[in-house]
Design brief:
4 domains, mainly alpha, two-stranded antiparallel ribbon, 6 strands, two-stranded antiparallel sheet
Length: about 425
């Protein structure tokens, strides 16, 4: 019982035969356990039950071929090991048995059926069955095991990264469906979003390896879809809140518009006073945005009548912003008009204070000073007055008083100069 690979191999010692038998029996048991573990592996079971396509299908088909080859080689390997074990059990110490066992353990004792030899390992004269050594059989089974487990591990890694994210997207989609029903949206309202989610789900379930590049799982497509789902879900949640709190929201808007109207009423009254009392700077106009704001609430009521809750949610934010802007503008106009009246009163007060100072210092009857006082008084007490001209006249009076008394200008002077503010040179309030 001699083969080409073992023709010149000297017989092993009985001790060496027993050692080698124990080793190959251990290899057979180890590989059998590997096959059992693979059969029970979660990723392996999922792959066997999945309807795979694309890159994942191609790689799984190759991995399945390796697993089939591994089982076939293992069966042949086990038969050869069992045969050697039986021969050793019946051996009576004869040299023929020793030579036969040496061949079984070291020679081409594993016979593989046709088609189980990988194409790249077949010689040009390969026609059918092939015999290999136990060591070669172990090497082939190990290579097949590594090839198969690499694919299973890659798919499992991809699924571990993708399935939780896909589950989150599915949960968000279910919530969107529930919210859509609650706000009475058409069932096809989010058809494109549903189609994109189905497409991503199909890729994750059927071709996860198409989302793996350089060993890294690309989750960007799921992340983009998550952002879209979050936006739609947020809009629908706002719409639901809009439906449940529409009356309260409109009441708050009405109250805010009433407040704007009150500020505008005061501003219009102030403007009438400014027009009557001050000619320059010109009094700013006081437009009335209240009717337009009321009309926008009427548009919201029309949307409510058609159960357009999502559109109402967006419209509410727009109207709230418009009301806030109108309130800020009305307060600014009121402050501007109030400032003009306050500036006139301030200039009058300063003129009286300077006049009292001139009297106290004995210069009240000075001809030049008296003429400047009459000019400033005329500018400030003429209706409507020019605040710019009044400021210039008051500054001239103040400077002349300073010259006569030989004192510095008081703090808070009205005289224009290098350090004077704009308010000291043009009446204090811009037109």
């Amino acid at each position: 019982m001699v083969s080409a690979s073992g023709a010149n191999t000297p017989p092993m010692s009985w001790e060496g035969i027993d050692h080698a038998l124990n080793r190959v029996r251990g290899e057979a048991d180890r590989i059998a356990l590997d096959l059992v573990d693979l059969d029970g592996h979660v990723g392996h079971r999922m792959l066997r039950g999945a309807d795979l396509v694309g890159r994942t299908r191609k790689r799984w088909e190759r991995a399945s071929e390796h697993l089939h080859r591994m089982r076939t080689v293992h069966d042949a390997f086990r038969r050869a090991v069992d045969g050697a074990h039986e021969l050793r059990a019946s051996a009576d110490g004869r040299s023929a048995d020793q030579a036969a066992l040496t061949f079984l353990l070291n020679g081409d004792s594993v016979t593989l059926p046709a088609g189980e030899t990988p194409p790249h390992e077949r010689g040009p004269l390969h026609t059918g069955d092939e015999s290999v050594t136990l060591a070669d059989a172990v090497a082939r089974m190990s290579a097949s095991y590594d090839e198969a487990t690499e694919v299973i591990s890659a798919v499992e890694t991809a699924w571990d990264a993708l399935h939780p994210r896909l589950g989150e997207l599915d949960a968000m989609w279910r919530e969107i469906g529930t919210l859509s029903d609650m706000v009475e949206l058409d069932e096809n309202e989010h058809e494109s979003l549903r189609a994109d989610l189905d497409a991503v789900g199909a890729t994750v379930r059927s071709d996860p390896l198409s989302l793996v590049e350089d060993g890294r799982v690309d989750t960007s497509s799921l992340e983009r879809l998550r952002l879209r789902l979050e936006r739609v879900r947020g809009e629908l949640r706002d719409a639901l809140r809009m439906r449940d709190s529409y009356t309260e929201n409109v009441e708050r808007l009405d109250s805010a518009i009433d407040d704007v109207g009150e500020v505008l009423d005061r501003a219009r009254g102030l403007r009438a006073q400014v027009v009557a009392k001050i000619s320059s700077p010109h009094a700013i106009d006081v437009p009335d945005p209240v009717p337009a704001l009321r009309a926008r609430i009427g548009e919201m009521d029309a949307l409510r009548a058609r159960s357009r809750w999502r559109d109402l949610g967006a419209r509410l934010g727009e109207v709230q912003s418009a009301v806030h802007e109108a309130a800020d503008d009305a307060r600014e106009r009121e402050a501007n008009l109030t400032g003009l009246l306050e500036r006139r009163a301030e200039l009058r007060g300063r003129l009286d204070a300077y006049r009292a100072r001139a009297v106290r210092l004995g210069h009240a009857e000075d001809g030049r000073l008296s003429e400047l006082h009459r000019r400033a008084h005329r500018e400030l007490w003429t209706a409507p007055c020019d605040l710019h001209a009044a400021t210039v006249a008051l500054s001239a009076y103040q400077r002349t008083l300073q010259e006569l008394t030989g004192t510095d200008a008081p703090v808070g002077r009205t005289t224009p100069g290098a350090g004077a503010s704009d308010g000291e040179s043009d009446g204090g309030v811009s037109g």
